[in-house]
Design a protein that fits this description.
The protein is about 45% helix and about 5% strand. The protein is of the alpha/beta class.
Length: about 350
């Protein structure tokens, strides 16, 4: 298979997975309900493809009739395994917002029409914080909506786009305008890969605000390393966006370069968009004081309303600082991150 080539089934099975059956086995034996739910959703998506095609014509009419969006669009970005899922879930649970749910993922060509027709079985609601590598549980659970972003960023989700596709200047505002017309609420969406190209989207969505997660580099490197084994089943297969300076055959060096690459991308995006539109959020600070983060969001968007929560959110979230790798691997990660650090890339002290 040529590098970057994708097929329709990669909507459900990532293109970098060399052994889908191995992935299914790992998900089945994970014991995680969100992982099991993700498999059921993928199977349902295959079966519903003919229905999705039938509904596409009605979907296009919704886009054509929609005015441009005006309510806030909060997009959570950052490296995979940096806490983006948790922050997006917190925003959804805290504020009266809409989001793309797992029901829409079953109808990638007609997500808004599917929400109109079948939304009763998957009402938007505040939920728990259960997730498995970004996958939430149940049809009402939050979804990244990557099937939507593929329209403009390209279907190779590991590639950093230089330009947008699919007549984005027209179709992107149309989609988010139609989504706003349906729900009448601000939107929260998590899209990790926009960490590298938020500036392309910001031009077309002037009401979009990007929150970029930054996690302690050592523990991010560890988590990305473990993800290669759990998801790809291969330590030489990167988890997430392909990065410059890759070192095939040396997964420890490569994962550290991946961390530094994302640091550089976040700095670049913030320089392009400014800190008001592209805010960098420490994962550790968020976990320690989520209420402070909620207040900062309210200050940025005073029109946001709090949900009437039945139960208060945790005063703090636990941060995993557990070593999950042999000391020899972690020590080499520390040394490699130190060696890669430059005056332009500020890394935490270990």
């Amino acid at each position: 298979m040529n590098a970057g080539r994708t097929h329709w089934w990669n909507r459900y099975v990532p293109a970098h997975i060399k052994n889908p059956f191995g992935l299914v086995y790992r998900l089945l034996t994970s014991g995680n309900r969100a992982a099991w739910s993700a498999m059921l959703q993928a199977a349902a998506g295959f079966g519903l493809m003919p229905v999705d095609l039938v509904l596409r014509r009605r979907e296009r009419r919704l886009y054509a009739a929609a005015p441009p969006p005006v309510k806030p669009i909060i997009i959570v970005v950052g490296p995979p395994r940096s806490g983006t899922t948790l922050v997006a879930q917190y925003l959804i649970n805290t504020f009266d917002v809409c989001y793309l749910n797992n029901l829409t993922a079953l109808f990638p060509k007609s997500p808004i029409t599917a929400s109109i027709l079948f939304g009763r079985v998957a009402r938007l609601k505040a939920g728990d914080y259960d997730a498995f590598y970004g996958k939430s549980r149940g049809l009402s659970g939050a979804n990244d909506g990557l099937y939507i972003w593929d329209r403009w960023l390209g279907s190779d989700r590991d590639q950093v786009p230089g330009t947008l596709q699919g007549d984005a200047p027209r179709t992107m505002p149309q989609f988010f305008g139609a989504l706003e017309a349906h729900y009448g609420l601000p939107l929260v969406n998590k899209v990790n890969r926009l960490n590298t190209c938020a500036d392309l989207v910001a031009k077309l969505l002037p009401n979009a605000w990007f929150i970029c997660l930054r996690r302690d580099p050592l523990y991010l490197a560890q988590s990305l390393y473990v993800a290669r084994d759990v998801i790809a089943g291969d330590l030489d297969t990167p988890y997430g966006t392909r990065h410059s300076g890759a070192t095939p055959g040396d997964p420890i060096e490569d994962v550290c370069r991946q961390v530094v690459y994302h640091e550089e991308q976040a700095r670049r995006q913030q320089a392009l968009l400014g800190s008001m539109r592209f805010s960098v959020l420490s994962y550790e600070d968020f976990c320690d004081r989520p209420a402070d983060f909620a207040r900062s969001v309210e200050a940025q968007h005073p029109a946001l309303r709090r949900r009437d929560a039945r139960e208060p959110d945790p005063a703090a979230f636990g941060i995993s600082r557990q070593s999950k790798l042999p000391d020899s691997v972690l020590n080499r990660m520390k040394d490699t991150l130190r060696n890669l650090a430059t005056e332009e890339v500020s890394l935490r002290s270990f």
